[in-house]
Write a structure and sequence with these properties.
alpha+beta; Beta-galactosidase, Chain A, domain 5; Maltose phosphorylase, domain 3; six-stranded antiparallel sheet; 18 helices
Length: about 800
Amino acid sequence: MTITDRITNQYGYYTEDYREFVITNPRTPRPWFNYMWNGHYTGLVSHTGGGFSFLDSPRDNRINRMRYNSLPWDRPGRYAIVKDVSTGNYWSLSWAPTIDLNYDKYECHHGQGYTTIITEIYGIRGEITYFVPTDANAEIWRITLTDLSGSDRNLEIYTFTELLMGNALNDLINQPNDKHFTDIHFDVNLQALVATRRYWVLNKGVSVKQPNIDWKYQIYFTQTLPITGFDSSLDTFIGRWRSEANPEAIATGVMQNTEITAGDPIAALQSKLELPAHGTSNFAVILAISPKGDPSPLQKEGQNLANLEHIDRQFAQLKQKWDRHLSAVQVSTPDRNFDLMLNVWNQYQAAVTFDMARNAGYYHGGLLFGTGLRDQFQDILGVVMVDPDRVRRRLLNALRFQFQNGSTLHNFFKLTNTGERTNHSDTPLWIPFGIVEYLNETADFSILDEVVAYHDDSESNAGGTVYEHTIRALDYAIANLGEHGMPKIMTGDWNDTLDYVGPQGKGETTWGAFFLGYVLKKTFPLLELHGDRETLSRFQTVYEQIGQSVNDICWDGEWYLRAFRDNGEPIGISAHTQGKIFLNAQSWSVISGLAPKERGDRALASCQKYLAKPYGMQIVFPSYTEVEDNVGLISRCVPGKKENGAIFNHASSWFVLASLLNGDVDFGFEIYQRMMPLNSSKDMDRYEVEPYVYAEYVTSPDHPTQGQASHSWLTGTAVWMLRIGIDFIIGFQPTLTGMAIDPHIPSGWQEFRAQRKFRGKTLHLHVKNPLGKNSGVSSMQVNGVEVKGNFLDLSLYPETELNIAIAQLEK
């Protein structure tokens, strides 16, 4: 690939293997982030070294600070600053905070689980790589300095980060008082700053009553160079009327060796380094955390975190982990952008959402909402192909937050096992959705017999099997149908901003009816295999009744209305001047199979007429410009943004799925393309956020900032675009009993190849499309032998490598 062949924008490019996005201009429209994590220790790291870290919980166990509205942007961060003693010049290896200097070179390489920033200035090349080891609760800043000047250099190295230690929400609202519990000292034997806090707030609310809890962790901050000075006081290190860009300690070269028991905490170290002409120096900074009373992670047997050889092995293991992860699915199609996203960045973003939910990002700060139940059961889609054991554990943990009547908490906090019971109508239904998806991938029916306690179990209650949890979720939804035979919307459905449609318990949701129908239908094969004929018959009857109800009362002539208010008035009809047509009701009428073909065609055609925009599908049209108190927050959002008329990518992805299923494959794929960040971010200065991952939404033409994106990374869009691409476009469709092969491709694709790991086998798919069709497998061969239909029964094949050939599509 030549430089001109690169996929680029004005701020950077993808490497040839697509595994890194390389930022070449640090002055991006917004901070562009990456993640480094191992399932317990997590760090967000921006292209300038910004971000924060936490252990298990971004609210309750935050390690260091990030100021969300800081000016300059993206402060504070993880900084390594080099000072030339002979000239007094000093500069950051991550560009920030010394952003006013003229660097000769800047590159930030965001890869899977690591970020490397390369700078050149004052005759020194610096390379700093941030990553989290796979088996240690720590982050590493691996640094290489190289002299480019041809002269011996006398350098000072300063590394520092601003600490938080504990509850990030409490730090935000009570920081002047909270800082009285800080305790930091320098351990001579470890050659490390050891920091902790003697008080821990775990409650979410504000109360005069104070918890009497010790923060149970210690932080260790060290580096592999000999340490010549340290500071733990932010005020002392930075100095009065200064900032991270010009700390007094660096300007003077004098560290005060402060050890504090109160005050704003910082971990700052100084080392001195003689760098010979054209020479190179390698060293590392380690920030680690462990429970109080445990041996220091710097001394843990068999794990020498402060050894460069060990660090480099850890980094190699991290890269190998992602090689394995991404090898589960690989595609080669005529669309290079599609391949880039599906092979690397869409899989990677889906892995991030699996571990972060919507709870730890630049836009989702992890302070308020905890982990969402509906998010947990959707986000498994991105990882179950790679790590089904982790998904199994995640499902069993999440089921603990279901009540005996089948309802659930809407969200929960990992360290406290508390959450909110909001009565969102759809939340319990994601349980059967997730369980069936797990079984489709794994056929691990043993999970159905696992017993999990209900959240309101008394000591005498033995809990229920996973199968019972699954049935109870559906029975709860069925028990809460309204007078029209549709689910009561209560506090809202998937669209949280329809929160005042049914607070009195009378309003009903059309989308919720279609979604309930879809989930019921999804369980039919499981009930059949499980031999539960009584429940199957009962659920089939409910499915038919729901279909009858929505088609009798919700069809508005060209599309389905969205909901009924508590007072019986409809939402989303052609007679309205705002909120006339909602995308989700139309998409799910088709996805659920409840819309007759003619109505499905007309509903999707109405979407195409009113909602199709340059970057995807608008969630509602026209946007609300006047507040309607009996609809909800949607009408208070800015028109054209968020749920009030934005290109809401999660909902837009469901339209793509509906189009594919309905036979309008070319238009569905066109919307899929419009949504891909490589395409929607063509005007990068308007789009603003990271061009390598999906954003929650893009502003629609209903607002002057059309094309501006926001809330990147942590969106359900990631898993749905990934699985729509793999399952429905490429056509790998896992079922309880095997794999169906059913591509839905644009007519312009003459041929494509793909491979997918599935239940211990690797499936190699080669599809030819000489007639320029979209779907319909004419015939299929497996390892050279023709099979009937397009279904793959893996029990018939002892081989671990299966070559699947489709000579042509015919529809």
